[in-house]
Amino acid sequence: MNGSSDPVNLYDDDVIRDPWPDYERLRELGPVVWMEALGNYAFTQYDTVRNGLRDHETYISSLGAAADDFGCTHQRGNTVASDQPRHTMLREAILPPLLRDNVATLRPHIQSVADDIVAACVRKGSFEAITDLAQPLPLTVVRDLIGLPDFGRENMLKWASAAFDMQGIQNARGQAARPVIAEMKEFIATGVTPETLKPGSWSHRITEMAAHGEIDPEIVPFSIRDYINPSLDTTISAIGHFIYHAGSNPDTWAKLKEDPSLALNAAHEAIRIGTPIRSFSRHTSKPVEIAGHQIPKGARLMMLYASANRDEAVFAQAGQFNIERRNARRHLAFGAGIHMCAGMHLALLEIECLILAMTQQMPAVQVGKPTIAMNNSICAFAKLPVRIQG
Ligand code: HEM
User: What is this structure's pTM?
Assistant: First the structure.
């Protein structure tokens, strides 16, 4: 048996600018495709990606979740790049403030910050969706929750973006990320102590637990990175996708005004169609035969979340933005299985609050031509001009 293969480099600039035709072609080639340019396999279709993510014993994370050896080696030991029992220990340390019920208590505060951010855009009439609207909510709310001292607060976005570049391959973006990540690690090693952190913040809680012997002090830097790296760019990307697609589909605005209870489904649909993280990887713990491929032990497999979320076998007219899509919440943008996103409830709440604020305060919006953000892993707009109508 011979499985299919493909020469495209998913980290080429042209692919990053518009990956959707390549994903469609890869899905047509089969559920598993050998990516010649990367030396990795890719899981391309919804069922294969979901089943692979759920089978954490065959498809392991402890050899790294990036797309090349350097990125994988750099990540080892992180929550996202660990297997049980280490994974359980790391995840349990960071999870309590991110649990659905705890996040729900933040709703009044997040809604009030969202209302103010949107009001400032309304006063301007025309605004830049990413810097004026998508970034300020996570940068205000999440940075306060994490509670780093000033140098950390100011650099979080830069560090997170670099971490997602290194999550891909060592192209120019991956290489440029190295000193930036070294700076972050140095900051965490020297600047993060109970005295420098905001009392009551997530990071403060972690250092206090270590000081009281409730967690192994060795995991503190990993926990802090868990809060810094995935908490900003992902949500900012999703908000950008919502604004772009809602602005390009005028009936969306009217539907949300008429029925605000659609806001959460609209948040999921924006996350599905945009898929903020294009892919993470796994490695095989044993030889696997799948879709005509004899995959050896230790091979790297890219889980193409973004391709899975456009699989027509699951999402009819997958390229269309439809906030009433009945199965929008089945998307794999948060992953699946034991590594499923730890921060999804917070991200969804932030996006939902912004959607409610926007659709209540803005009669409708018109979007201009977006500029794509060039990042190895994050699928996002760098710029998106918006004009408020009415
Ligand atoms: C729309 C926003 C977000 C998206 C699309 C997203 C996506 C993801 C994905 C795909 C994974 C799974 C990685 C894997 O399968 O290996 C993940 C894991 C994770 N996410 Fe998120 N994320 C978002 C927001 C957040 C936020 C706001 C936080 C923190 C405050 C966060 C923290 C984490 C952590 C700690 C993990 C590692 C979980 C583990 O390995 O057990 N994420 N995220």
Answer: 0.98
